[in-house]
Design brief:
mainly alpha; 10 helices
Amino acid sequence: MKDTSPVYIQENPVSRFLFSNTRSAVIWLIIRLYVGYTWVKAGWAKLNNEAWTGEDAGAALSGFVNGALAKSQEGADVAGWYATFLESTVLPNAKLFSYVVAIGELLVGLGLVFGLLTGIAAFFGALMNVSFLFAGTLSTNPLLFILATWLVLAWKVAGWYGLDRWALPLLGTPWNRKKNSAPK
């Protein structure tokens, strides 16, 4: 008879400290505030820019997309499949995507600054960073993508000094306060 019981692999001490120990929450707080502030600043600027969300909404995004499309033809900085997505989906709906980007950036930033649904906010921030990278834009996107990925991995403790400390247990994702809760 074959043994079908699960095999538990112990986490290494560094990973356990960084991703499961609330004593590492100070590290994640600093990272979270930096990334969150960056997103709030970018989103707020777009929300107050007529070319993003005002009278001329979509103009700035259309310019960005057209620049990415030019990069896809010149030096292949933008992959063909992504250029097709930009041309056939984003460009015809530039006004809608312009609002989605501006509001999304602000919401990701606020989620990270306040530590509310930190892992989800970081995931969507990373998704936006990857989208900008696929469009051929470097800027701070590689750094923000790496930090957001780490925040996603640290979701259990990254919001400990934030609203997640109370929100996650209410949503059914409680922290186990027992000293040694590792499976045996």
